[in-house]
């Protein structure tokens, strides 16, 4: 499947996503045969938890062919969430065929529905393929699905950090960006999605095999016209003279990003400047990078950490005491009858939230900075 534009049919050689569940997705290449370890060409059979899939059977399938029809009583544009499959719903009054609305939902468990009002036609986004112990859905790949299913050659950057990177770098169609640390290509696909069709990505990796594998993936995904892959150690040799004064943004994913900062200054556009980002797992790396950025004229330097937390909403019972009795002092030797009239504790229920004591899921620190134009430095 070309990441460049959507397709209606699966062609031989396309990359497709096998969807078994939210936490069970796989990317495969739609080829009828593969070469095994012995060098023999055998039929391409992909094993899943729901049975074997003959890859030959999905070639030529059209997306969005699986349909289900039923009646239900729902409000207009209501979104149902009962399952883990993307479904498009079009519904209308039985007697008014021209009135149609659409909504996205997660559902395959339609319980508690009544035969009133609306007639639903469900269309699955992706072809349904029957397996020996269930079924799977064949989805078209995109950067989000590719990040979850790509072959890991290195540690990758995930969508929470990627969203902040693209936002802070101010990427748009037509932007020219330099990336150092191609790795598995997770971020690269998001960057290409943000800058195409008129932008360009120049990505560097010091490991020759990883650079070659990334180049082959971009070629197979139809993105080779928008990316150039280089095998170079940018900390020592820089980004090359061909990129000097031509780049809008620079991203570094390196063990020592401070060594590449002087080379990054050279590639920014002289009359515009640009945005800089560095991803560092350790705070010491981020500190050294910030010092290098300050010494080379960068401004608006900041380091961020993206953490997700779950706030639990609960009803808390709080005890309150009526303190009016304090205004009227009573003798210590009061009678038992008087003690019975002491104020009772009232219970007040309050809806509140509880934050976690510790934050898990640390990935790294994102350091951002701005390089002003030459006349403003």
Automatic annotation (TrEMBL):
PANTHER family: TRNA (ADENINE(58)-N(1))-METHYLTRANSFERASE, TRNA (ADENINE(58)-N(1))-METHYLTRANSFERASE CATALYTIC SUBUNIT TRMT61A. SUPFAM superfamilies: S-adenosyl-L-methionine-dependent methyltransferases (SSF53335). It catalyses: adenosine(58) in tRNA + S-adenosyl-L-methionine = N(1)-methyladenosine(58) in tRNA + S-adenosyl-L-homocysteine + H(+); an adenosine in mRNA + S-adenosyl-L-methionine = an N(1)-methyladenosine in mRNA + S-adenosyl-L-homocysteine + H(+). S-adenosyl-L-methionine binds at residues 184-187, 205, 253. Its EC number is 2.1.1.220. Keywords: Methyltransferase, Nucleus, S-adenosyl-L-methionine, Transferase, tRNA processing. PROSITE patterns: SAM_TRM61 (PS51620). It is found in: Nucleus. GO terms for molecular function: tRNA (adenine(58)-N1)-methyltransferase activity. One of its GO terms (cellular component) is nucleus. This is tRNA (adenine(58)-N(1))-methyltransferase catalytic subunit TRMT61A. It comes from the Eukaryota. Belongs to the class I-like SAM-binding methyltransferase superfamily. TRM61 family. Its main location: nucleus. Residues 134-370 form the tRNA (adenine(58)-N(1))-methyltransferase catalytic subunit TRM61 C-terminal domain. Catalytic subunit of tRNA (adenine-N(1)-)-methyltransferase, which catalyzes the formation of N(1)-methyladenine at position 58 (m1A58) in initiator methionyl-tRNA. It comes from Glossina pallidipes (Tsetse fly). It is an enzyme of class 2 (transferase). GO terms for biological process: tRNA methylation.
């Amino acid at each position: 499947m070309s990441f460049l534009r959507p397709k209606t049919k699966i062609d031989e050689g396309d990359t497709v996503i096998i969807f078994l569940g939210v936490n069970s997705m796989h990317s495969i290449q739609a080829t009828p045969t593969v070469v095994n370890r012995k060098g023999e060409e055998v039929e391409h059979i992909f094993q899943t938890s729901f049975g074997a899939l003959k890859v030959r059977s999905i070639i030529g399938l059209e997306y969005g062919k699986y349909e289900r029809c039923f009646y239900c009583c729902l409000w207009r544009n209501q979104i149902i969430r009962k399952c883990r499959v993307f479904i498009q719903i079009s519904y209308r009054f039985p007697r008014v065929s021209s009135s149609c609305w659409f909504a996205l939902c997660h559902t395959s468990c339609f319980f508690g529905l009544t035969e009133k009002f609306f007639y639903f036609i469900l269309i699955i986004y992706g072809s349904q393929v029957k397996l020996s112990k269930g079924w799977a859905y064949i989805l078209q790949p995109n950067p989000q699905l590719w990040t979850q299913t790509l072959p890991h050659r290195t540690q990758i950057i995930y969508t929470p950090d990627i969203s902040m990177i693209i936002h802070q770098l101010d990427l748009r169609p037509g932007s020219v960006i330099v990336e150092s640390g191609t790795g598995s290509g997770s971020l690269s696909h998001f960057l290409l999605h943000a800058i195409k069709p008129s932008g360009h990505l120049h990505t560097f990796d010091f490991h020759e095999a990883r650079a070659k594998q990334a180049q082959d993936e971009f070629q197979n995904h139809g993105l080779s016209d928008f990316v150039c892959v280089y095998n170079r150690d940018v900390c020592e040799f820089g980004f090359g003279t061909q990129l000097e004064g031509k780049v809008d943004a620079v991203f570094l994913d390196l063990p020592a990003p401070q060594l590449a900062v002087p080379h990054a200054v050279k590639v920014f556009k002289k009359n515009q400047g640009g945005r800089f980002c560095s991803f560092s797992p350790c705070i010491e790396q981020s500190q050294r990078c910030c010092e290098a950025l300050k010494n080379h004229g960068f401004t608006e330097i900041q380091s961020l950490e993206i953490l997700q937390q779950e706030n639990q909403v609960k009803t808390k019972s709080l005890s309150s005491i009526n303190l009016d009795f304090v205004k009227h002092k009573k003798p210590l030797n009061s009678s038992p009858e008087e003690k019975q009239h002491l104020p009772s504790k009232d219970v007040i229920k309050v809806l509140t939230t509880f934050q976690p004591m510790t934050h898990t899921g640390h990935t790294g620190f994102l350091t951002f900075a701005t390089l002003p134009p030459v006349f403003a430095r």
